[in-house]
NADH dehydrogenase subunit 6
Amino acid sequence: MTQIWLWQPSNHPPEGPIREDQYKCACGLTAKFGFTVFTIFDIVLLVFSIIGLFIVPFLLAFQFPLAIGMIVLAVMSIKTLRPFFMQIYGIIYIIEMVYLFIALAAMFFLFVLTGFLLLFVKVQTSEERTNKNITVITSFVVAILSVLTAILALWRCKVSWEFYKYVRDRQLAIEKQPSNIGFNQVA
């Protein structure tokens, strides 16, 4: 039998039946659906990364074991609805998010600073002015993209947390039931 918990939470499930539609992501869909969409998105990105690896060898090779492991944990969480997989996923995901936000903050400030400082550079020729303008615009576009990436990452955090709460509360409700009630009583 598969392990149920990595650690047993101390909180109690809400009263009444635990239903999937009680746990929503920010867009109004169920957290399970949102988590599944993000997992499919991860699979697509992994496929494109593998294709990119053939174009630029060894560029992202160190990320493949982690990406594959995260996808396996996500799929196991969705299929089994066991908190064990979601708890491991959550620990690794928090570490990934810390690194992501550090990288995004560094990119944002670096490109904003570059773009801002280039605004004050004196240029002599029209070619230099064109290059400067392209660099300034590119710097601000990268800064905006890093902010949008951070917003998407925060949304994904919310969806993952809601899905974990659903899986956790569902399992707590199952464990709270008397042993003579069947497994399918909790929706």
